[in-house]
Amino acid sequence: MLSSRLLDNIHRSIRSSVHSRNLGILAPCLQKASDPIQQLFIEKIKEYKQKSGGGNKLVEPSPEIERELKSELEKVAKVYGGGPGVDMTKFPTFKFTDPVIDPINMEK
User: I need a labelling partner for 95 at 20 to 30 A (CA). Which of 64, 66, 67, 79 fits?
Assistant: First the structure.
């Protein structure tokens, strides 16, 4: 009897601490963010979005980074069959030809 009461009390205390801990985590999310670090982070994300223009280009790349990117793309093109004048961004076209089969003479 005593052990069941003891276990019951332990179970209740654990349950209440878990609920209060979860509420403590959610409380800052429900309030308006007034942290200057968060505001700075949001501003930088908006600035990056404007600079990127929604494209797939690098944002403010240096000439060194552009050279490195070009050399890496050339390496990949050589490995996978690209070369001068080959558009590696285009899906390849496949040509399948039917083999010539001799007709089977069923009647003999």
Answer: 79
